[in-house]
Amino acid sequence: MKSLRNFLPFFCCMSLISCAQAPTAQHTHSEPIKIIKTEPNTTTSPNPLQTTHIISEAEFSACLDTFSAKAKTAGISATTINRSLRKAKLNTKVIELDRKQPEFTTSFADYFNRRVTNQRVDQGRALLVKHADLLKRIEQQYGVPAPYLLAFWGLETNYGSFFGNIPVVDSLATLACDARRSNFFTIELINALRILDAGDIAPDKMIGSWAGAMGHVQFMPSSFLQNAVDYDGDHKRDLWNSTPDALASAAHFLQSLGWQAEERWGREVKLPDSFPFLEAGLKNNKPISEWIKLGVKRADNSPLPQANINASLLVPSGHQGPAFLAYDNFNVIMRWNRSEFYAIAVGQLADQIAGAGKLIQSPPEDAPRLHRDQVMFLQAQLNEKGFNTGTPDGILGPGTRRAIGEFQHQQGMIADGFPSKKVLALLGINVDKP
Ligand code: CA
Predict the structure, then answer these.
(1) CA of 217 to the centre of ligand 1 (A)
(2) Dist. CA 242 → ligand 1 center (Å)
(3) Is 418 part of any domain?
(4) Most CB atoms closer than 10 Å: which of 43, 84, 156, 356?
(5) At what angle are helices 372-384 and 398-410 packed, to 10 degrees?
(6) pLDDT tens profile 355-409
(7) pTM of the predicted structure, to 2 decimals
């Protein structure tokens, strides 16, 4: 889980038009991971392999020769090599998107309000009715309740309305031939060829995001090979054109990632005025009974259930925003996409599709928007004062939030780890004058 995170500095998106979308990864059998995209404020350090060289057509052609030999060794048929890999086209736009770093942090309010919309909730509720029988069968087989499947579907492709439109072999061959993340994309390219060899999809129909994520639920080829199922019985795993195949495959994947059938994702909660915010953060996982002792209640102020499960407490907008308890399934969602914002959005969208109301505490919308350089400056200032953020990388990740919390604690402030205007001012950053 840890290594790929450092290897894949990604950022968000729902559309190739407005922003970049990055890949899904799959690890070993014991530790499967799928990373489709990670949010700008939760990624780790920039990749040292990043280069500025954009390969030429001649270099790409030579690279295809090398990969053709590799594909042959990997057992890919000559037909697939000649019809697909040999005809791959260099797409330099894909390389540009892969290297693009987000300039500004994204606030939780911005992220959440763009994704968990009334339209998306309404459409999810309609699809819940439309596909009720199918979803019931899938839940019985894989243990993932329908509202969660709809939430993933809604967040990944707006329920199948946008799959990406780049030939997957083009994007993966381009990224495999580019130096920056060649090893990762070489594996995905070979796996994409395996899918074509198996006959699940015609080569010209295998389209995806710029990073090769495919179909209704945006599987990378490795995730496809391990988790895609033929659920409509036509002997093809068609994640582009078959809703049963796509939803059952998503459920199968979540099951393999460790989904707990009887548990929720987590829930919005209410904290007492005196809450010790240094307890917040995904790494501080403890029994719900401990949170109850600290005064945590449901968001409607009723008592939390006395369930025998562990949870972490999250305050993505600081103490003035909503608070959440994250249960085991929250971590499963983060194995699909390593982003706390994404996992909260999945959970909330699922709850609302199932009939729940909106967040009781809305996230404040005036959170400072920080330029990458300002975050690096913030990190350097904290390091200088003895609050370790690691090597400044311009990304507001868990380590930086922890250091901010410790700095706040020293200053006698509420230690929620949130870079409020007051914290920034104390560290010499004026967000009104970027
Ligand atoms: Ca099928």
Answers:
(1) 15
(2) 6
(3) yes
(4) 156
(5) 50
(6) 999 999 999 988 888 999 999 999 999 999 999 999 999 999 889 999 999 999 9
(7) 0.88
